[in-house]
Design a protein that fits this description.
Strand content: 35-45%
Number of strands: 10
Helix content: 10-25%
Radius of gyration: 23 Å
Distance between the termini: 52 Å
Structural class: mainly beta
Order of helices and strands: EEEEHEEEEHEEH
Shape: elongated
Strand order of the largest sheet: 2-3-8-4-7-6
Length: 183
């Protein structure tokens, strides 16, 4: 991961409630990936990005398509309670031509048209942001992390400086020192 790679999902239909993209999955391998993924069987599935999920989840459809064998089990916690589910080792191939090797995924049940859920185990490998400027959702993900975004700091830097004898920002027509500037 020596150079930056990024993915952007941009809505053309307003605010998105689900962040979806095509995600590739392959059997795990050690070492460098084959050049141009030659000889590597990568199956593509409809995936969602979920910051509320600790780990990445795959469905039975993914397990069967790749003929995966369980590598263990894990206790998972969902809105339906807790249960024990099989875990698998796979490689994840993101749309930005970036492969993430040896990802431990858990088998689970997802929304009917979703086969894979990208969780915080992958999201925390880079920078992730969601904005809704002008009523359009834009989700962007980049690896490796390249900057820190702090909206509070940005707002505070752009605030005009108010002197004690200036009119208060609230519109009261009082001097700041007699309104919101009282100590």
């Amino acid at each position: 991961m020596s150079h930056q790679r990024a993915l952007t999902i941009r809505s053309d239909k307003g605010i998105l409630r689900v962040l979806q993209s095509e995600i590739g999955v392959s059997l795990p391998f050690l070492g460098e990936p084959p050049k141009d993924n030659e000889g590597l069987v990568i199956k593509t599935f409809k995936g969602i990005w979920d910051t509320g999920a600790t780990g990445t989840v795959i469905t039975k459809k993914v397990v069967e398509a790749l003929e995966l064998k369980p590598t263990g089990q894990a206790e998972i916690h969902t809105a339906d309670g807790k249960s024990i589910k099989n875990t698998y080792l796979v490689n994840i191939h993101l749309p930005m031509n970036l492969g993430i090797q040896n990802v431990k995924v858990t088998e689970g049940v997802l929304h009917s048209d979703t086969d894979l859920l990208i969780g915080m185990d992958i999201i925390t490998l880079g920078d992730f942001s969601i904005t809704h400027s002008n009523g359009q959702t834009v989700m962007s993900f980049g690896i490796p992390s390249c900057e820190s975004v702090d909206y509070v700091q940005k707002i505070n830097q752009n605030k005009p400086k108010i002197g004690r004898n200036d009119k208060c920002f609230c519109g009261s027509e009082k001097k700041y020192k007699h309104c919101h500037g009282k100590t």
